[in-house]
Amino acid sequence: MSVFLVSFLLLIPILLLLRTRSKSSERVPPGSLGIPIIGQSLGLLRAMRANTAENWVEERIKKYGPVSKLSLFGKPTVLIYGQAANKFMFSSGGDTIVNQQTQSIKMILGDRSLLELSGVDHSRVRGALVSFLKPDSLKRYVEKMDVEVRRHLDIYWQGKQQVKVLPLMKKLTFNIICSLLFGIERGNKRSIPNLIQSIE
């Protein structure tokens, strides 16, 4: 009796799993969620470590198409690929789809990062970034950054036996931000209060 009961209890989860896998819905994209909790996380991490993540994604697209389901880091995920997918993601008004990162990524990037924003907030921040990263703007920024880095190396690094890198990199970053973002040239006194005044 007990052998029959144990085998019956073991068969129930297997039958339920097979039944749920056999059900197909038109609203669910093709693909496999893989092993529970683990999913495809190990395969992706292995590909990222070998610097072949693009190949991993391409193989998945060849197998399931530009829209597929998978499980990453314990969460069911939808992979969408291509120009139409980008347009769908970034031009929808926030009602259709919402970006939601895993808790670990939220902790690293913050809950107000571009990856987390949606709708009007996402459009506003993305528009500001696009105008900032136009080729003409980048060309001007690179020239100014080059001048600032050369001046910094001449003053603080040239001919020195020993340098403290961290404080000097903070100073270089601060000077580049003053020059690029706020337009405070070297002749003016660069300080935090001056930056606050230029922002206001």
UniProtKB/TrEMBL annotation:
Belongs to the cytochrome P450 family. The keyword Metal-binding applies. Residues 1-24 form the signal peptide. It comes from Lotus japonicus. This is Cytochrome P450. Coiled coil: none annotated. GO terms for biological process: sterol metabolic process. GO terms for molecular function: heme binding; iron ion binding; monooxygenase activity; oxidoreductase activity, acting on paired donors, with incorporation or reduction of molecular oxygen.
